[in-house]
Amino acid sequence: MATIPVSVDENPGAGEDGGKGHFIRVIVADTQAIFRAGLRKVFALEDDIRVVGQAETLAQTQSAVKKFSSDVVIFEAALAPNPVEAVADLIRQNPQMRIVVVTPGADEELTLELFRRGTHGIVSREVEPELLVDCLRQVAAGETWLENKAVHWVMEAYRNQNNRPAGARPKVQLTPKETLIVSCVTQGMKNKEIALRVGTTEQVVKNYLRKVYDKLGVADRLELALYCLNHHVVDNTKVPPLPTSAVNGNAKAAAAGAGASTSSSVSNSTPDPAANSPEKHS
Asked: What does the radius of gyration of the chain's CA atoms come to, in whole angstroms?
């Protein structure tokens, strides 16, 4: 058994922007050598994922996180007697790093606690390799990954908060600007659109959201939206419209696209029977 984390990055620096884009740098922390080896083979087939370190104990994981620059840590829950606290400690020490926890199976209590303490992704031991790859990409992009059953558990947990006594969670006051930005988030807007509507920059929006996360004790946009839904944080908050310049820009782009479409279809005089059919949305 190895006593220190082992680097498996055969090309140091390949994770930087070197003309081929940014790699998702991953540390695989798991008690089973065969599982670690299997993940390395799976990720080796992906152009945008590189395993930079591995560990088989909690101590090795903590050492690997300090030693290797990584974007995501795949962390087996069995590595620690209390995986929730272990994950929370790793996140506190490395706020920019994102953690995907591998659980032995469906466990509602463990899933809710991990999610509440800031875990970015939770997958079961039997997850398909293709889904795990998708999970890594989504988590590395700043999103949350939960399996369908886990999403149901989280939704139910937040709905049930309405039945708690009013004093169960301290009342938090948001500033008008914070409330406005949060309202945009609950409507599914990305930072770029929020910045346009609020009249600021994407970076300022990100800064505001980090402050709101800390105030409300949430970890990401999904948890923020669920919290606001159940606590009526942004009820009756009116989101400002897009500025005229942005609207005109979109209109011009749409007109240009329509003009190109019209000119390309002049030679076709036969009406398309599907043209008036309602569009299907997946």
From this structure: 23
- Tens of pLDDT along 84-121? 889 888 888 888 889 999 988 776 777 777 887 788 88
Max Cα–Cα distance, the chain, nearest Å? 75
48 and 136 belong to one structural domain: yes
- Joined tokens for residue 130: 């293709």
CA distances from 86 to 59, 90, 92, 197 (A): 10, 6, 10, 40
Burial of 264 (0-12, 13-18, 19+ CB in 10 A): exposed
Same domain assignment for residues 198 and 154: no
Q: Determine the residue type at 274.
A: A
**Contact criterion met (CB below 8 Å) for 115 and 219:** yes
| Residue ranges making up the domain that contains 64 | 24-159
Overall number of domains in the chain: 2
Q: Residue 146 belongs to a domain with what CATH number?
A: 3.40.50.2300
| CB 52, CB 67: distance < 8 Å | no
Check pLDDT > 60 for residue 194.
yes
Given a contact cutoff of 8 angstroms between Cβ atoms, the answer to whether 29 and 79 are in contact is: yes
